[in-house]
Design a protein that fits this description.
alpha+beta; about 230 residues; nine-stranded mixed beta sheet; Serine Protease, Human Cytomegalovirus Protease, Chain A; 2 domains
């Protein structure tokens, strides 16, 4: 066993959880809650977060922790209102900024189950490696941000609740305002972005006359996500 040295500034590790987002409610305020990390279980990266690992970070308060999309520091999508450790792990409650395009799009993808995990960005302060178990116990972490992501790493953490009254017609309006073609916007609302992209691929293979329209829809949506 040995103590892990503090990493140099800027060296940030990320770790996603896989208690997949269980969407029970979607509401106007864009508020949701869940576990960003769980204690005592070995994740796919061979790490195990121990209770108390976030204690010092949490003394700074939840608002000090950034809410990002896919660990991109240029994509702030909301704010954390509450962050605390309990017997299960790191419980967090936050609000997506639905007033901005990326926030509205994130809420839509959460509803569709396409964004279904939380992932932490942190620096390791103290850890011990156990050779017999082939696991590294993370004892103290400096938590910088928590992101909403697609793919999980930890086998046990999700968003439990998403409050949102945003209706399909509202999502379609947001997409249409971003110059996404109507047909493609409806396809995204009804089937999700992944299925819409698959339809585009099929159209391209079959030479469908609507390829140009769906292709322009993909481009418009991509520009929306960059905004």
């Amino acid at each position: 066993m040995h103590k892990i040295e503090i990493k140099e500034a800027g060296q940030i590790d990320t770790k996603a959880n896989s208690i997949l987002i269980d969407i029970k409610a979607i509401g106007e305020d864009g508020e949701f809650s869940g576990y960003a990390s769980t204690f005592g279980n070995k994740d796919r990266g061979g790490d195990r977060v121990l209770a108390g690992a976030f204690r010092k970070t949490l003394e700074r308060g939840a608002p000090a922790i950034k809410m990002l999309r896919d660990h991109d520091h240029q994509k702030i999508i909301g704010e954390w209102i509450e962050a605390r450790e309990d017997s299960k792990g790191l419980f967090v409650r936050g609000r997506i900024f639905k007033e901005i395009p990326l926030g509205a799009e994130t809420l839509f993808l959460m509803r569709k189950g396409q964004l279904n995990s939380l992932s932490i960005g942190y620096r390791t302060i103290d850890a011990e490696y156990h050779h017999q178990e082939d696991v590294r116990d993370l004892k103290e972490l400096d938590l910088w941000e928590i992101s909403v992501v697609i793919f999980p790493m930890n086998e046990a953490a999700t968003i439990d609740q998403v409050k949102n009254d945003l209706q399909a017609k509202d999502i379609e309006r947001i997409l249409r305002d971003a110059s996404v073609p109507r047909a493609f916007a409806k396809m995204i609302v009804n089937h999700g972005f992944v299925a819409a992209k698959a339809k585009l691929a099929t159209d391209c293979r079959e030479g469908d006359e609507g390829v140009k329209a769906t292709a322009s829809g993909i481009e418009a949506l991509a520009n929306l996500l960059k905004s």
